[in-house]
Amino acid sequence: MSVLFHDIIYGPVKSRRFGYSLGINLLPTNSKICTFNCIYCECGWNPDKTVNNFADKNEIFTYLEEVLTTIKETNSPLDVITFAGNGEPTLHPDFEEIVSIVLSLRNKLAENKLIVLLTNGTTLHQPKIQNAIKNIDIPVFKIDSAVEETRNLINKPFKNYNFEAYIENLKLLNQTKVIQTMFLKGHIGNIYIDNTTEKELNALIKIYKTINPSYVMLYSLDRKPPLSTLQKVEHSEMQSIARKIENNGIITKWV
């Protein structure tokens, strides 16, 4: 069962990754838009026909100001403001300007709260996206596998996706940068998928070392995925994975 965000501003919700998070959905409130079609995405599968009715930047400004004002007046818990929502946030044509607006509102009404971006990084080659990300406190980039066949099965990226160029752009990003990796197992039709194997972990560690992230965020399934044959990686195995990565000098956070 898919879970779409039907509001432009939602929350604060208790996030297992960042505490109390106020979400910003720049994408349609009744449909998903993404350059990946991940088999575990809580928003479900990409629709056959995409409707590009992105959130209006002026409405974002109005709603965010109202919500942040209420949070401040009521002293409600808030840790981060997160760009997430129904797909890939950086696809919004006004993303750079919106980040600037959100930054100014944060400074005015939610000083010291961090701005987070959850992204698959497919637009990172664009200068305007790079400029926007420079103003984001915690940009979180997705790498679920460093093995092409596995990556294609898990993420189902758009046909022109260039993983090698993505890694090069991440290497050049001289700021806080976080990598998130979803670990899972299961069948896709007759194909068994498992990105926890020795081969998979060694390939991931090699990529992590190349990128040199601030830390790597490790997680497994928390909600029922659109592909029902997938399995959550259990606690003990996640501990083992984290230990192996940390033994290679990479900081991990497991959620």
Q: Under the CATH scheme, which architecture of the domain at 9-179 would be assigned? A: Alpha-Beta Barrel
Say how many strands there are: 11
Mean pLDDT: 94
The third-level CATH topology of the domain at 9-179 is TIM Barrel
Report on the biggest sheet.
8 strands, mixed
Beginning-to-end CA distance, first to last residue: 22 Å
Number of alpha- plus pi-helical segments:
7
Strand content: 15-25%
CATH class of the domain at 9-179: Alpha Beta
The CATH superfamily name of the domain at 9-179 is Aldolase class I
Briefly note the structural class of the backbone: alpha/beta
Trace the largest sheet across and list its strands. 1-2-3-4-5-6-9-11
Elements, N to C (H/E): EEHEHEHEHHEEEHEEHE
Describe how the helices and strands are arranged.
Blueprint: E1 9-15, E2 19-25, H1 57-74, E3 80-84, H2 95-109, E4 114-119, H3 127-133, E5 138-142, H4 148-155, H5 163-172, E6 178-182, E7 184-188, E8 191-194, H6 198-211, E9 215-219, E10 230-232, H7 235-246, E11 252-254
Parallel strand pairs: 2-3, 3-4, 4-5, 5-6, 6-9, 9-11
Antiparallel strand pairs: 1-2, 7-8, 7-10
Helix pairs in contact: 1-2, 2-3
Name some characteristics of this structure.
about 260 residues, alpha/beta, TIM Barrel, eight-stranded mixed sheet, three-stranded antiparallel sheet
Please explain how this structure is put together:
The structure is a single chain. By secondary structure, the protein is an alpha/beta fold. The chain has a domain at about 10-180: TIM Barrel (Alpha-Beta Barrel). Helices cover about 35% and strands about 20% of the residues. The chain is built from seven helices and eleven strands. It has helices at about 55-75, 95-110, 125-135, 150-155, 165-170, 200-210, 235-245; strands at about 10-15, 20-25, 80-85, 115-120, 140, 180, 185-190, 190-195, 215-220, 230, 250-255. The strands form two sheets. An eight-stranded mixed sheet has the order 1-2-3-4-5-6-9-11. A three-stranded antiparallel sheet has the order 8-7-10, with helices on one face. A hairpin with a 3-residue loop joins strand 1 (about 10-15) and strand 2. The longest helix is centred in the N-terminal third of the chain and has 18 residues, at about 55-75. It is globular and about 50 Å long. The two termini are about 20 Å apart.
